[in-house]
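# step 3/5: fold
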Amino acid sequence: MSDKVKLAFVGCGAIARFHLDGIKSHAPNIEVTTLVDLDLAKAQAYADETGGQAFTALDEALEKGDFDAVDIMLPHDLHEKIALQCFAAGKHVLLEKPIAPALDACDRILSAAKEAPGVFMVAENSQYWPEIVEAKQQIEAGAIGEIITARAAFVYAFDEYWFKEEKPWRYEKGRTGGGITIDGGSHWIRPLRMWMGELQEVVGVVGHPLAQMEGESLTRALFRFESGKIAVFDAMMIDTVFAPEPWWRITGSKGELTINAGLDGAELWLWDPDNPQGKMLFSSPGYTESFGPELADFAAAVLDGKTLAAGPEQALGELRAALAIYRSAETGQWEPVWA
């Protein structure tokens, strides 16, 4: 067996930068050999950086490229078609979240993955976000006692980095399956599930303050978990200036944990009777530091047969939560996540 994973980037848009930097920092056993994008200039730029070969079509890459795994980083509506094609070609598949924008498409992808010979992983990088992982360890060690409630605040000022295309696909509801909840919101929902257990039902409302986005750019929701505990989920992407606030707040019987985070760094703080002014427990580069461990986990599964930190079915939880919020916004009622 080879000691390296030969990887093809399928899609060389905004998130590809984070994946490649993560490979460079944490996954020396991954070699990016193939770059695929409809825009040849994007593929060639990464090819120049990695020494790989650029293609504008997956069909040609599968015929002429040298790779045994793919990293699919494409608009959500393309996930099913491309994933199924790669399974059929016998490739290991790393697929950016969500699995697909609709549950029936997810079912087809998961079914095909079970029949395919390779590894299938859904890239939900918050599973590896350093401060999220550290918070989980602190909770399990009893740092704040029993969890009472939590809040996840995906509050993010509009950033053109994610919308560089002439016609940004993230503005189109038909391509994303919704708005910010089904997209970036998953990175805030997964940690709540890691800390508080499985979701049961949600109630929420959505709004559209970012006029150019067809899907929602504002969400306010309550989550009820199977334990009966409640958490708050807020999501906002607005072209405005936001005041500082923690991205996560976890309230327990003995104190609180807060995570002050951004794309350029993060801090985990403990607030308890011994530290009423707060004590910083942990700091990291934050969001950007999650991609390396994610890619390293994929490589270990491919090369060594390691069990993934989270199987691909786990990603259904974030998608189902988003879809339940959308239903609740229409019905005005609590909606089950797993119905």
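# step 4/5: annotate
The first strand starts at residue 5 and ends at 10.
# step 5/5: archive (pending)
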